[in-house]
Amino acid sequence: xxxxxxxxxxxxxxxxxxxxxxxxxxxxxxxxxxxxxxxxxxxxxxxxxxxxxxxxxxxxxxxxxxxxxxxxxxxxxxxxxxxxxxxxxxxxxxxxxxxxxxxxxxxxxxxxxxxxxxxxxxxxxxxxxxxxxxxxxxxxxxxxxxxxxxxxxxxxxxxxxxxxxxxxxxxxxxxxxxxxxxxxxxxxxxxx
Length: 192
What we know:
There is one protein chain. The protein has helices at residues 2-6, 73-83, 117-125, 127-145, 151-165, and strands spanning 17-20, 27-29, 31-34, 39-41, 52-58, 95-101, 109-115, 170-176, 180-183, 186-189. It is an alpha+beta fold. Strand 9 (180-183) and strand 10 (186-189) form a beta hairpin. Helix 2 (73-83) packs antiparallel against helix 4 (127-145), helix 3 packs across helix 4 (127-145) and helix 4 (127-145) packs antiparallel against helix 5 (151-165). The radius of gyration is 16 Å and the shape is globular.
């Protein structure tokens, strides 16, 4: 996976998206348009229903590398749209991977967010809980983005959010590549 992503032109500058159609399947390029902070993806062009999606988060000049470890509020909005029956992703997609990219095109590792079976029950039995969870997550992201909270508080709130969501079946795992490590739940260069 790492080699495939790093081999793309301007991998450290523009987002790239891939899908996997099977659990052990190969990555299939899914970027219809690549931009600095987003990528346009068309899922209806695939023959099978995708099981997971991976996309990159390039780290811009002056950005704290930790801020790119987790998915953005926009990345997780599909969870809310699933509840409302308006998700752009098929029901088979339950996993999203976010891969932060250094400016030189090196992948730091990835975060995996997975909707477990308990989450699927919560979607059906208590959709308001899903909406409230996303709203809270979105507010943390916005507060950090607009400078209302410092990085240390952002780190603390994000970690607490994912710990609180785990019993409901929203799971996250952060995996570093060589040369990087996980520190307080975030990917950072190993030398720091």
